[in-house]
Amino acid sequence: MGDVARETGARSVEDDREIAPGSVRTDVELVAARVHQLRAVDPLGRITVIVDSPAAGRHLLRVLAANAPIFNVEPITLGTLVERFSSVSVAQDQEILLAAAHTCGAIEDFGDVRREVSTVAAVARVFRELSRIPVDEWPATQSGVSSIVLTACREMAGSLSGALAHDWIGDASVRLQGDSAHASLGSIVAHEATLRHGTRAGFGPVIAALNSRTEVVALAESTQRIHTVIEAAHPLAEALAVIQRVLAAGPGSGGIGIALSDPSIYAREVAHLLDAAGIPWHGLTGRTLLETRTARTALAMIAVTPDLRRDQISAVVEPGLITVNGFRLRFAAFENLTRRTGFDDGGVATRRSAAVAGGDDWTRLNLIEDGAADEEQWRVEQRDATAELVGTCARLATAASGNYRQLGAQLLAALALVARDSDPAEAGARTVIDTLARQWRDHGMPLPSSARGAAELLSRSLNVGVNANSAPRSRVVVGTVAQMRSLDLDHLFVLGAGEGSCPTVPAEDPLLPDAERQQVTGLSTVSDRIAEQGEDWRTALRAARAVTVSYARDSLRSNVEQFASRYLDRVPAAKPDRVVRVGGIAQVIREAASDGSHDGWLVNEHHFRLASGLAGKRPGTDHVERSRDCRNARDAGLLSEWNGYVPEAGRRYVRDHSGGVADEYSASALENYLTCPHAYLVEKVVGATRLDRPENADEVKAKDRGSLVHKIFELVTAEWTSGRIRDVDELRRCAYEFESASIASFEASFAVGDGFAWEVLKERIHHAVDEWCLDVSAMLGGSDVADGSPGPISGERAFGRAAGRPVSYTVRESGRALNLRGSIDRVDVYDTPDGRAARVVDYKTANPDTYKDFRDPARAGSFADLTAGGKLVQPGIYLAAVRADADIAALCPRSWTIGYHVFDARGDLRKAEMTVTADAEEAFDQLMNEIDAGFAAGFYAPIGIGGRSHAYCAACHVGVFDAAQAHADALAEAWLELRSDETTDFNRSGVES
């Protein structure tokens, strides 16, 4: 039982007495510990826990049941709470864990809430009323112990104002801290939505209140170095909370640095968040100043205000980015846009003007047609827009923050420069100049003496602090890692290390200036930028006394692991020493125990429940049958061991369900068996499909996106191998026709939207098709197509018994023959100086990051090293299949290569080709030996180095099968009436081979 408790993260009441320094506990663990405490006082009392989803409730029940049977514990959602208060008398004694307060009797008229009133509004009333009740007057339970809460309602923080949120979270938590009955409750508050929306005005104090009572990162009190990697819903807010704790600890010998891995991503939000929290800071780059919300909008207003000479502004505000309809564009690109839409210097003739949403938090700019036929009305609108612009700059110049004051003065100087050099004879220019002069006098701003003086002032101000010798006034500095390396820092925060590829404006974009068109590479990868600045990162990270790497929850975990392994010397084996999930119902990601006491990878209990149909809305008949098979296997004791080992009775069950066909194994299934045992269990053994959420703004699932690209390649290959294509031009024409038809069909079948991200994705697909055509053209060597010409000779070539091409592989150690089946994406023949060679090509279009090492073999080591993750099982089997194919063997190639075409939706079609050597053959044989040994022993996952699987699947949480779960299963099944909120869907089309 102790092993189970360690893996589930559950803690007993005795373990909750003290949180040791450096420990990390999730909100679920804290709530579970508190529930155990309440149960120890009142064994029969009713406990109701507010959760954000039914899945969260089921997870909490599993954690509770792992230590001891828990009775009369009910998880409910906020929607259920509102409905219950509408039908149940408020005088009824109920123990509600809501905002660290007992809601019974708190609001007399809550039962009159109408059904159509939203959950957010109803709960807001609860919190407002509770804030007026002294903590000592909160109703107690029959046992005399008041209740607590885990607030995890995402929709609430997005709707409530910052002041109200601070009242019911911050103030209530402060009062609870002083109450002996609630002394340990403040540390339980962990509000995911507040962290996510931390950039809202007024939420800074809320974030501070929450994180000061939530143990997230244990900072070293001495000078001992500590490296921490945080995965958070909002990494900026999390970093801010730690910064506030460091500042509160008193002055240190050095400063606090915030290193931006990519200033274009985080600079604006960092500046706004620090200012909103009232933390003095010093910007080392002009971009950190220019990309604040208000400053960015002011730059946009300068660019579109009629009759202002934009060509004179561009020289001094070129680094700035502006926002048009939600998209960030360079200033030069925006100049092209304004001219194309009529915003030339002759603004009167075009009858257009700019309408900008008002307020200090302007973030969007919309271009609208001005239907006014009256020139005087246009002048009035122009004058009002100019007045608003100058007023905004003046408010900036008089703001409390020194950074905003500096920026406001710079923008006002730029406006004065434009007004002074404008031609009074131009239509409307006199109105602009008069308005500027009046506003200038009202705010006491001196006009610059010359245009050159204003430009120099602005340029010098925007680059303040670049010289390391200029000591900042604040302990907190923000900039690039190159600027951090020479500073004395107590703590260095790294933001954005987990970001992947950032979409850039494609080269074909009509808004892109001609001078920049040739410089666009089409892909902006943060990890590549970090690698280019490797020495700067090593110097800065080693010089800082403490380092915290914070990255967004939706970022690429592989990038973070890569960063940690290269630059954080305290993090072993390319894995962070701690990964903390902050807020919501989430658990710390744990790997299997490294003490060697187990024999295999842990089977994922959460995925087992998905496969069993317990978490689905309406599982199909086929999934019900598979669920029954899986449940029978567990009930028969086949899955009873916590270490993932399946006893003797389960060996045939594993083997019969491994490839879908007895004694014949799918190439993709065997690779999945090695690289992701959890997905193998769910998809290949049980037959269900895990929920695949979109990973990009285009809202297209990775599998669907990959199928689209794969289908285009398949159609073009089939056309080529049929002999209907005779030259390169015809090849391109055919490829583009298939591309257009496939994309049109895809758009008709899937809700892809019509946004900028989908357009970028289509451009990437077009570029990938171009690369495919270039690859085939290179094999031809510029000649026309003829019989026997180099190029693809087969596409989607099936092998196995059903295809009439049986393939058998003999395992070296056991001598057992494995019958194989599958389909080869493409087989090529091409000419080399040593004769004709053949190549097996495998398309990787749905999950390209798994194969990132193949893009740079030199970085990963030898070809044999690349097989360590089991990634070469599939092409290795394909190679064995084509060698056994009589038609292909007749070509008698002298050498074979394995090629990967990896399509990255955030990048291009990347190709990798490696010659099959003796080392590679040996590595492939070893992989097949491990697979055979795993099947023979009855393991779902093979034995790897250190007693664990070769590859770690970041999408899978480690769970267990154990007899102790039976009680939690019974509770969860009785709670299934709440599952209507689930969004899990199953693939009803059957098992993909």
List keywords for this structure.
disordered C terminus, 7-stranded mixed β-sheet, 43% helix, alpha/beta, exonuclease activity, 993 residues
Q: How would you describe this structure to a colleague?
A:
The protein is built from 38 helices and 23 strands. The protein folds into five domains: 2-211, no CATH class; 226-284 and 476-582, Rossmann fold; 286-462, no CATH class; 633-691 and 947-961, no CATH class; 702-938, Lambda Exonuclease, Chain A (Alpha-Beta Complex). It has 993 residues and is of the alpha/beta class. The strands form six sheets. The chain has a seven-stranded parallel β-sheet, with helices on both faces. Strands 17, 18, 19, 20, 21, 22 and 23 form a seven-stranded mixed β-sheet that branches.
Which stretches of 5+ consecutive residues score pLDDT under 50? Answer: 1-26, 81-226, 285-375, 421-433, 445-473, 501-524, 570-662, 678-698, 857-861, 937-993
Strand content: 5-15%
Roughly what is the average pLDDT, rounded to an integer?
Answer: 51
Strand order of the biggest β-sheet: 6-11-5-12-15-4-16
Shape: extended
- Major sheet: size, sense and barrel closure? 7 strands, parallel
- Total number of beta strands: 23
- The assigned CATH architecture of the largest domain is Alpha-Beta Complex
Helix content: 40-55%
User: How far apart, in Å, are the first and last alpha carbons?
Assistant: 38 Å
> How many individual helices?
38
Which structural category fits the helices and strands?
Answer: alpha/beta
Rg for CA atoms: 32 Å
Number of domains: 5
CATH level 3 topology of the largest domain = Lambda Exonuclease, Chain A
Q: Quickly name the level 1 CATH class of the largest domain.
A: Alpha Beta
Domain PD-(D/E)XK endonuclease-like: 665-957
Protein name: PD-(D/E)XK nuclease superfamily protein
GO molecular function: exonuclease activity; helicase activity
InterPro entries: P-loop_NTPase, PDDEXK_AddAB-type
